[in-house]
Amino acid sequence: MRTVVVTNPPRAAIEKVDKLAEYGVATVHEALGRTGYLGPELRPVHLGSRIGGTAVTVLCWPGDNLMIHAAVEQCQPGDVLVVTSTSPNTDGMFGELFATALQVRGVRGLVTETGVRDVADLHAMGFPVWTAAVSAQGTVKATAGAVNVPITVSGQLIRPGDAVLADDDGVMVVPRQDVDRALDAAQARVDKEEASRQAFRNGELGLDRYGLRAKLAELGVEYVTAEEYGL
Known about the structure:
alpha/beta
């Protein structure tokens, strides 16, 4: 591993990321063909936040948060800090002091495969965090890692400057070059869902709207009376 801090990564246009975040993780994930989702292991430490931002990536050693300190300097308004470690680790590598420093720089939240602590303080200060673990276990500052290099989080490749979306449904990444396509696809999905929503309000069934009666028949599903079933 090359131990570097990359100081000038290209970033997705923040106004486009802001618009993408309005659609929400589930909609954008589905619109892009069910890609980019970081999985159910990363959960918000408190509910009710929806953010989008550009990734500042951090690769740490287990139990060592030195590179998070190095990453703070590289953050700018609209960023989301994304942290992983070279091997699985759930120590509390991030807490209220880091969040304070990041809020001053306009950072919108944290996504980490490691652990966090000071959860009550994070909630009180309104700093959104999605994490794999909550742990009071502290860390050291002793081993070099990297900042703003490509990393893998929950099997998804995240490059510095990619769009990161997070809400109560989880976290996803949209590659920087795919943001425009994601915007078009998400709007198309919203329009389609609104048409279905109106149909359901008018009493139409999903079985009919989506042509699922034929699918049930194809799969051999039978409609029988209670007496025929023996109830």
